[in-house]
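Incident log, structure service

09:12 report received: a user says their structure output differs between two submissions of the same chain.
09:20 pulled the input from the user's history:
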Amino acid sequence: MKLLVLMVCGGALVSPPGFARSLQIQGVTGYLSEYELSAEVSGQLADRGIEVLSGPLNVKHVGLCTHAGPDEMRGQLKIQFVGLSDKIEATFSFDGSECTYHGFLTESVTRYMTCTNNLTLPLRLWTKQTPREIQPNP
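09:34 re-ran on a clean worker, output below:
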């Protein structure tokens, strides 16, 4: 009986093969939060229960001061969930550089992302809405 309960509870923690979901991601970066980030990422569970989501990224300058460079940049965001926690590893690719972030999806915590051009920027990253499940792939 204990084995049956353990199997049922353990199965509830692991998504079925082919399970996929998408998230709307929002964020701000820059020392004055002068850039807004938005992305819609989707993906599936990979080997060993690791969930990897990716999708197009939009980075928009919303600061009051002028700046060098475009007002809007497009790129790619890849998020990997670490274990069963809500900790993530994210990779941002835009404007010819790549940035990495290790932290959480929460609007209330500022962490830092490190970019290939030796730039470290504050970042807050969160989900815009509750995660929604999409249909498994046939």
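09:41 both user submissions now match this output. Likely a transient worker issue. Closing.
09:42 reviewer note: The two ends are 34 Å apart (CA to CA). Confidence is low (pLDDT under 50) at residues 1-15, 130-138.
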